[in-house]
Amino acid sequence: MSAFQPVDADFERRVRESFVRQGAMRLIGAQLGRVEPGRVDIELPFRDDLSQQHGYFHAGMTSTIADSAGGYAAYTLFPADSSVLTVEFKINLVAPAQGERLIATGRVKKSGRTLTVCEFEVVAVQGGRGKTCALGLQTLMCMQGRPDLPRPG
Fold first, then answer.
1. Where are the domains of the chain?
2. What is the pLDDT of residues 106-119, one digit of tens each?
3. At residue 102, does pLDDT exceed 70?
4. Which of 49, 132, 141, 153 has a CA 20 to 30 Å removed from the CA of 110?
5. What are the φ/ψ torsions at residue 123 (nearest 5 degrees)?
6. How many CB atoms lie within 10 A of CB 118?
7. DSSP 115
8. DSSP class of 95
9. How many CB atoms lie within 10 A of CB 60?
């Protein structure tokens, strides 16, 4: 049970539709998982073209899904006529991102009218076991009255 109450009862549909419009998530093959008030999970299956020279997920991939997981966690609590924009984030890479997939979980820590603070964790899953590979904090802005652009094409 979430401690947060969304102002938009249709928050999950809005989050999922926004995720589909993200070209970067589509490009890397990320998938939206759990969507709850104040929490979102994003999964990224391993592909060789997402790796760095040691065969781990590249830190850029880890950061990308972490940023989106936190952003969408905040977005679950925003009004229907708004969008989300990252103001800043800090990520600590605490272990190699080695595994079959990454799971980034964003959680709202403090929801405000304009700014929301989230924490995120990225877990690398290998052989059914997860290991935290990144932790971070993020500040997001509610772009009130500025909904997402329609999906091109």
1. 11-144
2. 999 999 999 999 99
3. yes
4. 132
5. -115, 130
6. 29
7. E
8. S
9. 10
Find out whether 18 and 73 touch, Cβ atoms under 8 Å: no
- CA pair distance 150, 17, nearest whole angstrom: 10
Q: Which positions ≥6 away from 102 have C-beta within 8 Å? A: 43, 44, 46, 57, 61, 62, 65, 122, 123, 124, 125, 133
Per-residue pLDDT tens for 17-45? 999 999 999 999 999 999 999 999 999 99
The Cα 72–Cα 53 span in angstroms is 30
Task: Check: CB of residue 135 under 8 Å from CB of residue 5.
Answer: no
Instruction: Tell whether the model's pLDDT for residue 16 goes beyond 60.
Output: yes
What pLDDT score does 150 carry?
75
Q: What is the pTM of this model?
A: 0.94
How many helices, marked H, and strands, marked E, lie in the chain?
3, 6
Q: Which two tokens stand for residue 24?
A: 């970067």
Token pair, residue 87, equals: 């103001």
Joined together, the tokens standing for residue 89 give 């984030």
Instruction: Assess if CATH 3.10.129.10 describes domain 11-144.
Output: yes
Neighbours of 34 (CB within 10 A): 13
